[in-house]
Fold:
Amino acid sequence: MQHAITELTWNRCRSGFIQRRPARKVYYSSSKGMSRIDLGRAILITLLLSSSAAAQLQVSALKGVVVDAQRQVVVGATIVLQDSTGTSVATRTSAPDGTFQIADIAPGSYVLRVELRSTLLLTRRIVIRGSLPVEVILDVGPSVQEDVVVRGDAGALTAEQPASIAGDALRREQEPMPGHRIQSALVRLPGFMEEDNGLVHVRGVDDGLLYVQDGIPVYERLDRLFGIPPSASAIASLHVLDAYIPPEFGFKSGAVIEVRSQTGLNAAWSGNLDAGLADTATRHVEGAASGPLGGAVGLMVTASHERSDRFLDPVDPDNLHNEGWASAATTQLTWRAGANLITASAQGGRNAYDVPHDLTQEQAGQDQRQRMWQMLGAATWQRIVSDRTVWQLSAYMRHGAAALTASPNDTPVTSTARRTNDRGGLLWSLTHQRGRHTAKTGFEASALSLDEQFSFAVTDADAAADAGLTEAAIAHDPSHPFLFVDRRGPSLWSLFAQDAYRVSNRLMLNLGVRYDRSRLLLAASQVSPRAGVAYEVRRGTVLRASAQRLFQPPQSEYLLLASSEEARTLSPFDSDEIGGGSSVPPERQTALDFSLLQDVTSHGRVNVSVWRRRARDVGDPNVFFGTTVTVPNSVARQHAWGLEARVDVMPYRGWSGALSYSRARVEQFGPFTGGLFLEEQVAAIRDGTRFTPDHDQRHSLGATLAFSDDRQHWRVAGAFRYQTGTPVGLDELNADEVDELRGRRGAEVVDFESGRVRAYALTDIQAEWAFMRRQRFDLSAVAWVNNVTNELYAFNFGNAFSGTHFGSGRRVGVSLRVLFRR
Structure:
């Protein structure tokens, strides 16, 4: 049976109000057995999303109207915008004229739900890519015949496979210190696997995460050893891309993490405050507030402080010498003036911590410490030229510095280091839509100032020899230390062009190309074509595929040292053409991905992906002899392939959850083509030698389950994670060296038959109760237990690249959270 729905389309006027255009008819088919409200009620929603370029993320606004099949507005309908995990991003109620508005939305992947008197009328996925004002027409009936994106850069069918995480979901991550919450949320996604100190591996890439923080790319590392990540208290949403990556993103080959902060352009002031305590003298306080300063200006401020006696992942199972703290603050102003949107932000942070060491060093009185500083200033100007064209200009300056301080009783090696990394950049993009095409082009340029000082000396020659240091390294004793000082000013620039072509309502094609030019430190360039396609086989079933080239220059931290002639003298390799001390080349990858997305009722979906990547001059940083100095190096070739699967259960009668599985294999082939090496055992990896790197983590299984009682205002959640261990590198050791490894403290975490760290399984639980709810604020108490079974595990053990790092035992903590609003 055919039912006609009179469809109203709406245009945005310059005043921002909604104006009706002539109506047309769209048909849907229904079948017997449907409820009367399903047959008699249809929802039409027109979405106007004023958004910026995805790589220069700014603000989106969503407006709409709800009407029924008789063209009458629906009053009191509940419109819920959810992230990929089912966490509510925003909730609105349709006004007496049927309209609603949700301001301050970041481009990302969402689920839109419309309910009336507890009856679900509409569930629809929508991906907001950004760049243009968008009109999306969504019709709901027993069976939808047509789903039309009238104008703009958004739709339910996209070549990308984004995952969006709401800020509230991030703030619920049960980490002892809030600075670890972003990494904790990422490793719950398929394909993301954790290593020590917040380092995340994705699809065979050891260090390949590109953070885009409020439109500004951050190419420096943000794990615990290198920087201070954004505060979760001010994050509105997190948007993750790891399959097809549009050409506008570059210089990283793993994944893109877009971080969107609150802007303050909402109607009233609001914010949050979180203070907590945990064992090992862990405590934290962080908060954020945002709101309007007049009608056109918004302000966001955030501040945080955390400290712990278990600041990093320790190198000894007894967590020796591991006290640290971190503080950070951010402020951002956003000004909307007609067709212009201007933002300015400033961020600063500092941390200080002990360098963890083993029992021998503890008994000797070793006391190495590290300090870090971080500052960022940025400004963005976005202008909407018309409803089909928008351009954007951004500029930024980032400063990072770190200092490692030695102590008189260091053993068997003492070292000092100081580095500064300054980067200034400019980005511009232009987006234009014509017909079924949404084209985008732009450029990016940045200049760096690198300044490094490094020295070390061997204080115990016998212990250093037992640890496998080269003779050249052992020769540098306290009277003849190794010294290195250098300063350089490399640069990078790129151009890109891309087009998202909606071939039909069931077929989407993305094509683009990117050109990168790097002088970091080698002069190198690459043309990177990228293609992605999405095809809707039937309602709720989508096939995706992508093929792309990726280009990743080496990390800038300690790059001068790793590429120096001085480092070459320490190399165990017997050739002047390969090995430590040669300049580290950029990584070049070819990536293929195929996936299937299947909806399972209105409350669940399944996503399965298979992928393969081949790379040369692969970046694989290594740790300098148990310190916090991590230097870049590169390996000639790498093959990686894997499978990922995830089942999401959207909130249903209070329950929600997810189940994910990742299978990954990584193989590398010598020789090393650049970097700093002190250990003799790496000399076994010569030209063509195949070996298994430390980020070959094989299997990972994760599950989350939560129940919320909205009437009693409490929530309980649990998480489970199983992960196989990393390789130890026994193939490169002789019998005496293997026996020495067996005798180390904590060696029970190693399976010496397989040559890998043992697999581990962790269970976490959390309970939250909003015990006081008032018009102006909510007050909640949270209690959590991590690693309930107190399992002893390690991320790595005795590895030539990563060293030894133990995971956390059972952790218990409580916190008090305040949500306030005017």
